[in-house]
Design a protein that fits this description.
By secondary structure, this protein is mostly helical. Helices cover about 40% and strands about 0% of the residues. The protein is built from four helices and no strands.
Length: about 90
């Protein structure tokens, strides 16, 4: 897993693990139980209570969008969402 994570980090900078004198990656295998490191990092972020309390202050349109997105997350589906708003509107 360390080599895989290192390779992901190198890929972000246009490099590959093969570019260095390191052990090669083990054969590719799909492990659906493993959470990608990027998602693990995001899950580890502490959400302040004041941010959670802002949910109650959403207007109707914002609440609909929030519930749709949270429903997708709760059902462990994937999705792409585009939030558009003028600068300074708190989008």
């Amino acid at each position: 897993m360390l080599l895989k994570d290192l390779n992901e980090l190198l890929n972000l900078h246009g490099k590959k693990i093969e570019d260095y004198d390191l052990p090669s990656l083990p054969p590719n295998r799909v492990d659906e139980d493993v959470i990608p490191s990027v998602i693990q990092e995001e899950l580890a972020v502490d959400i302040p209570n004041k941010d959670i309390q802002f949910v109650a202050k959403l207007n109707n349109g914002q609440m609909v969008a929030f519930k749709i997105i949270m429903n997708v997350i709760g059902q462990k589906h994937s999705g792409i969402f585009f939030v558009d708003g003028p600068g300074g509107t708190g989008e």
